[in-house]
Structures are given as C-alpha cells and as structure tokens.
Amino acid sequence: MSRAFRYVDFVLLIVSAATLAAGGLCVAFDTPRLAGALWFAGAAVIGAALTVSIGQGLMKRQAGVDILAWLAIALALALGETLAGAVIGLMVASGRALEQFARSRARREMTALLSRAPRQANVLKDGQWYPVELDVVRPGDRLLVRSGELVPVDGALANVAELDEATLTGESAIVRRRAGETVCSGVLNAGAPFEMVASALAADSTFAGIVRMVQAAQRERSPAARLADRYAAFFVLVSLALAGVSWLAAGHISRALAVLVVATPCPLILAVPVAIVAGMSGCAKRGILIKGGGALEQLAQASILFFDKTGTLTKGHARLVSIECGPGATQEAVLRDAASLAQASAHVISEALTIAARERGVRLSSPSDVVETAGAGLTGRIDGRTVTIGGFAFVSAVTQPAPWSAAVLRNLGYEGQAAVFVGVDGIMTGVVRMADQLRLETPRALRLLKREGIERLVMLTGDRRDIAETVGALLGVTEVRAEQTPADKLDAIQAARRDGVVIMVGDGVNDAPALAAADVGIAMGARGAAASSEAADVVLLVDRLDRLLDALRIARRARGIAVQSVVAGMAMSVVAMLVAAFGFLPPIAGAIAQECIDVAVIANALRALRTSPRMAAGALAREDADRLKQEHVRLAPVIARIRALADELPGMPSASVAGALARMNEALTRELVPHEQRDDLHVYPGLARLVGGDDPMAAMSGMHREIFRIVRLLANMTADLPPEGPDAHGVAEFQRLLYGLDAIVRLHCEQEDELFHVLSATSAAGD
C-alpha cells in the first residue's frame, strides 16, 4: 500500500469533520440551506469512498460490512436527513482512520525492519577498497564495514567487532563478537571499522530473507481475518433483516436507518486483524519474525513440538576437542586449511573452526571459488590448493580415505562427537574433532513449554539411539526418535498432524522438508533466516530456545484478545441494534454509540502489543552476567587439569605423584577456592534478592561447602604421602576424589551459568 493511499482515510476524516462543523456554523448564522448542502456534500464524499471500497472487495470476492454504512448514508440523504448523513459519514471516516492508525501502530516493529536494508558493500580488490552494489558480492570476498554502517551480507569476522543487533534481536545492548564468529547482514557496526569474509550472496543473506518474510506477512490475511469476512457477510444479512422488520413494525423507514447506523462498521472486521498484527509486531520486537497471521494463530493452538537436536537443543557453537592428522601433516596446518575455507560458510561448525583457529593464533588465508553443499561440506581454493572439508562421506568422495579414518569414525560414534575431515589436492590430511553442548536455556525452556500446554515433546535426530536417548533423558522429553533421515522426520510430522497442531523447530537448512510439513515451521537463530524464508513460518532471530516460549505466549495472548474483542464488540453492536429497532436510539445517537464501540474494540485489540516478562524475579544486568560467566571461562584450565590428573595418575611414576598432587592443590587453593568464596560472600546475596524467597541459594552454597571439603581432603591426604608415593589403593582413592571434584565443579558452574542466563534474560524481556 502506497503512503498516499494510506493517508486517504485521514483526508476523508478531515473533510467530513470540516463539512459537519461548517454546516453547524451556517445554522448558527441562519443559513439552513447552505448548511444542508455542506452536510450533503460531506456525506456524499464518504459515500463515494465506500462505493470504491465495496467495488474493490467484490473484485477480490471479499465480503464486508461497508455495504451497511453505504446504505445508511444513502437512506439518510434520500430521506432528507442531511445532518444524520453527515454524522454517519463522520463516524465512518473516523472508524476507518482509527483502524488505519491501529494497523500502522500494530505493524510498526515489522515496518522498522524494512527500513534498515543495507545498500552497498566495500570489497577488497587489488589491495584497495571499492564500494560496490550488493549483488556483486560473492562468497569469499573480503569486505570492510566502517563505523555506523550496516553489515551488507552474512559472513565471518576477520577481527573483533562491536555490533548493535537490536534491529534483528530486539536487544539494545552492544555485543562484542570475536574474530571467526558469524555476523548477519543488517546489524549495525557500533564500534571501530572491521573486516569480514562474505559467506553468502546478498539475496541469500539473513536480512534479505527477513525482508521477504516481512513483506509476505504484510500481504497475508490470517485465517481468522478470512473467517471474520465470512461472519461479516452473515452479519450483513442479519442487520438488513432486522432493519426491514423494524421498518415494517414501526411503519417508518427512519427506524430502519437507525438500525443500519449502529450496525456500521462491525467490530468483527476491526478487532481480528488489529490484534493479530499487533501480536506479530510484539513478536518482532522480541526478535521473533512471524511470516503471517496464519502462522501466529496456528502457533497459539499448537500442542505437539518436534525439534532437531544439533543447533536447536544444543548451543550450535561446537568446541574443538582434538586434531588428528596423517603422515606429513601437522595439526596447525590441518586447522589452518579447514578454518580458512570455513570462513566462507555460515554453518555452526564452520564458525567454531574459525574461532578455534584465531584463538590459537593461526593465521588464515582468504578462500576463493567456494562451493557449499548444504549439510555436507565445502570445496574451495586456499593459497592455490584445492581444499575440501566436511563429513567423511563428502571428503572421501574426492580423496583417498586415510588408514586412520576407520578408527576415528569408530571413536566418534562412541563419544557422540562431530568431525570435520580435511582433504588437500585429493589427499585426506586430517580430521578436526568437535563437540557441542546443550544450550543453557534448553532444560528450563522445555519445562515451561510443558507448563504452557505443549503435550508432546519429540526429539528428532540422526544421532545413534544410545546417544540420543541419553540427551532425551537429560532433558525430560516425551519421545526420542534417533537415526532419523529427512524422509523419516517428514513422515513423523505428517503422522502427528492427525493428533493436533504440530510445531517443528530446526536450523532452517537441513530440516527444510520437516519445517515445511509442520503446521508451524520455526527456524532457530538468525543464521537460518535466509535459508528458511520459504520453508519456515517463524524465525527466532535471537539464537535462544526460550524465545519459542515467548512466541507461544504472545501468540496465545493475541488470539485470546482477538476473540475477546470480537465477542464483546459484536454483543454491544447487537444490543445497540435491538435498542434502535425498538425506537429508543435515533440515528445520530446511534452513530455516536457505534463509534464508541469501535474505539473500545480497537483499544482492546491493541493490548496485544504489550508483552509480559517471562518471570517475576528481578533482573541481572547483562554486563554482570557476562562478567560472572567470564570468570568461569578463566577457571576452565584449572578444571580441565583436575580431570587430566585423574586420568594420568595410574600410569604416573609413584615418586612423581606427590609433586603432581601438590601442584594441583596449589592451583585449587590459589584459583578455585577464592572464586567460590567470593561467589558465596558477594555474588549470592545479590542473586538471592533477585530470585526471592527466604534462602533461595542454599543448595548452591551447599555445593560450595562440598567443594571446599574435597579440596581440604586432597590437601591433607597429599601432605601425608610417604616419599615413595601412594600404593595402588591410594592412587585409586586420589582418583575417586579428583573425579568427584571434577564432576561437582562442572555441574556447579553449569548451574550458575544457567541462573545467570535466566536472570539476564529477564532483563532482556523488559527492553
């Protein structure tokens, strides 16, 4: 809809109000003929506009209640009731203007996204930066993003960047991204200029997918809106019948005019689209992009949830576990080749590779001639060599499988890890082993989804059954389906649709068939937006599973408000029609009464714009949460040494055990114990106030005491060791304590991280 066309209703409102007021002045100055002419003209203008609206609706085969307004104005003018006609025209014009304002207000957040589209990019060519149109950029191109500019296409950062991602995520905080991390098109550079490597064409990037989805959402009419049209047609017939009966009963056509006035316009066609669009806009504000009103309504009625594991239940940010290589290759070279090529891909494993390489100080080269096979791997040129990375089947198709690859594949199956095999010029040179972790918010999000009425939680994964069932038991899902092919996932969703409305959550690339088959397909994370613009109905632009909970709550609230507005508005309109039919509500008073009904209905529908915080507890500032999590990152080397020492003890010379244990005790006393003491004394009191209750941190403090007990016990046992070291029984006892300490510290840190995440997410909910 053009800007000029959107203003027509407001122009009509001004015209109708001006003619009505001018007619009143004419009556005051004793010129009733001129007053009648002005009132007639004002009513006729509104009648002409209604004629156009009715004609457009008939061409689209859409029913409506504009016919009632047109009949009321025409009947008033035919009876010489020009004042009544002018008042009716003003009420109609104000109702249309109010609806237009409400729709614009409701879709404000979605419209804001469209205004932020990137326009051009700065590309490195022959050692210099050149501004080019976006459609010229290709994967592998090196780009420069200056301060205050928008990221032009999806890619990987070549150096640290400070980004304002509020347009996509709804969170206004400045986010610091490390070299190697994925950056999405459309976010703002809020810091110093930075370089990046493009991983997608402009048309395939995140923001382009978002633009397509928003445009589709603004064009689509929701099922409830279409249902409202059908009810509106029925309402027109009922209104005309009641008007005819009142005319016959009273013997005067003015009684029919009074009935038609209060029947126009119908709250049914005002409340539903305003509430649904308001819900969609509220979701957009929270970083949840919904393709259309139909998806919002389906989401509100969902009772079955399917989800992929990798990238959905897990963080999607794998960490490097180890690098294995064949003869003639080094670990650094294998990582360098893999990470250099991975810069041109937005896949979560590619992002993890580049981050791991940069953390280890590995200098990367720019890739060229990159070809990505979704879900399989990448091929491209690195420093004049052809490099292939990906799964074993993908890499072995163009290289000779290495002798060591069978053992690696077997171990990967045991441990449930991912692996990126690397081939260079037809030779398999090595493999990078990766591991993923559950998202911090996943257990809590699934618990709350159950509380919101999701009856079945089904995990679909291609992993082995034992690995999948372990994860499923950890999360408390209803059902686990392992070793699933894309066809298996498709069949499972189609079968479940017979039992209720089905949601499918996936990464938007490998799960596209399942996303398309579900009643509501949801792509997880901004990186999936472009790929899922056709398959998914909803994109969670914030890479957190708990935003699905927000989407479900907003959808149900918006649908509930729409139904509430329709029922209340229609009830008031029917009462007003009956009062008018019995002669107690003249046309002018009826027009004013109907306008009050419309205002009340639209105001109620706009309540769908307000979103509630996810929990009642207080909020932890993001910077505090990040600081607390960063302290755990700094502790990671010490924690890793606990497990490593426990593994090494049986094979260690007895004389060396005492020294190794003493060094371990020194590290625990110097780093781990002071950290836990600071948490107990300075952090937990503040968290307790935010959580609420008498002593909400008691269990966490109890874990501190257990950590202190084991550390003291280790120190005492180490001090009592004889010079020759412990015997076999003593080694076993030290192992038991170290393994126990490792388990409790890791669990404790994960619990704290989840708590920090939940409390800081509450802060985000109020933004």
The beta-strand count equals 22
Assembly context of the chains: single chain
Which shape, going by the Cα principal axes?
A: elongated
Helix content: 55-70%
Intertermini distance: 31 Å
- Mean pLDDT, rounded to whole units? 79
Given as residue ranges, the uncertain stretches (5+ residues, pLDDT < 50) are 1-5, 528-533, 613-617, 763-767
Structure report:
Its main location: membrane. It catalyses: Zn(2+)(in) + ATP + H2O = Zn(2+)(out) + ADP + phosphate + H(+). It is an enzyme of class 7 (translocase). It comes from Trinickia dabaoshanensis. By secondary structure, the protein is α+β, with helices and mostly antiparallel strands. The chain folds into four domains: 3-109 and 216-277 and 557-609, no CATH class; 119-152 and 155-199, Calcium-transporting ATPase, cytoplasmic transduction domain A, CATH 2.70.150.10; 319-435, 3-Layer(aba) Sandwich (Calcium-transporting ATPase, cytoplasmic domain N); 622-765. Helices cover 58% and strands 14% of the residues. It contains 27 helices and 22 strands. The strands form four sheets. A seven-stranded mixed sheet has the order 10-22-21-20-11-18-19, sandwiched between helices. A six-stranded antiparallel sheet has the order 2-1-3-9-4-7. β14 (377-382) and β15 form a beta hairpin. α4 packs antiparallel against α5, α10 (253-262) packs antiparallel against α22 (546-581) and α11 (268-285) packs antiparallel against α22. It starts with a helix and ends with a helix.
